[in-house]
Amino acid sequence: ELKVEQNPLFLSMQEGKNYTIYCNYSTTSDRLYWYRQDPGKSLESLFVLLSNGAVKQEGRLMASLDTKARLSTLHITAAVHDLSATYFCAALLGGSQGNLIFGKGTKLSVKP
Amino acid sequence: GAVVSQHPSRVICKSGTSVKIECRSLDFQATTMFWYRQFPKQSLMLMATSNEGSKATYEQGVEKDKFLINHASLTLSTLTVTSAHPEDSSFYICSARPIGGENYGYTFGSGTRLTVV
């Protein structure tokens, strides 16, 4: 059974600071995804990580994948208020025909 | 990019009635769609995998007779909550994956907030 664990679950940070969200998964997975969810809204795709060592960056967010450690990270650089949201990682279970297993999410609050 | 339309966005219904939620892939074909349920401040829980032209695959603990799924075409899947009860109140989100699209972010619909009174 594939389990996906995120930490921290809650993160309050000041604008301008850096922080990292961690995502561990329990068994081999072919893909790792990061999503953002704003309150009352659906999920917005941020990153798709396809292979060991993959690193992707978009603005102040950078995601990486270490398949050997079964670990993905989402690094936030110089946070701004607009980044406040809940961030989910999800691992692909079952290969190309499979489905996503989600972590519990990290609620990020960026304060001035 | 890939767009998934989900309708309705909000629905309030009386106990005992049925509610149908539609999920359409607008600019791509999807042989597989997924239905999730999200309780407040919780993660997404997969309810079922909808396969075009065949029966849906339900996750353990999800009643197939209560949550009817139909995937009649490559662009439309529907979820019908039958004989709804207040405990069925939740946020339901569908997701679709383009054929060969596991290398891209699965696209999610805008969600349906169901309230059963």
Mind sketching the topology for me?
The complex is a heterodimer of chains A (112) and B (117).
Chain A: E1 4-7, E2 10-14, E3 19-25, E4 32-37, E5 43-49, E6 55-58, E7 61-66, E8 71-76, E9 85-93, E10 99-102, E11 106-111
Chain B: E1 4-7, E2 10-13, E3 19-25, E4 32-38, E5 44-51, E6 57-58, E7 67-73, E8 76-81, E9 90-97, E10 107-108, E11 112-116
Parallel strand pairs in B: 2-11
Antiparallel strand pairs in B: 1-3, 3-8, 4-5, 4-9, 5-6, 7-8, 9-10, 9-11
Describe this structure in words.
The complex is a heterodimer of chains A (112) and B (117). Chain A is mainly beta and 112 residues long. Chain A is 0% helix and 57% strand. In chain A, the strands form 2 sheets. In chain A, strands 2, 4, 5, 9, 10 and 11 form a 6-stranded mixed β-sheet that branches. Chain A starts with a strand and ends with a strand. Chain B is an all-beta fold and 117 residues long. Helices cover 0% and strands 51% of the residues of chain B. In chain B, strand 7 and strand 8 form a beta hairpin. Chains A and B meet through strand 5 and strand 10 of A and strand 5 and strand 10 of B.
Task: Please summarize what this structure is.
The complex is a heterodimer of chains A (112) and B (117). With 112 residues, chain A is mostly beta strands.
Order of SSEs of chain B: EEEEEEEEEEE
Name the average pLDDT of chain B.
Answer: 92
Count of distinct strands of chain B = 11
Helix content of chain B: under 10%
Give short descriptive properties of this protein.
heterodimer, A: mainly beta, 6-stranded mixed beta sheet, 5-stranded antiparallel beta sheet, 0% helix, globular, B: 117 residues, mainly beta, 7-stranded mixed beta sheet, 4-stranded antiparallel beta sheet
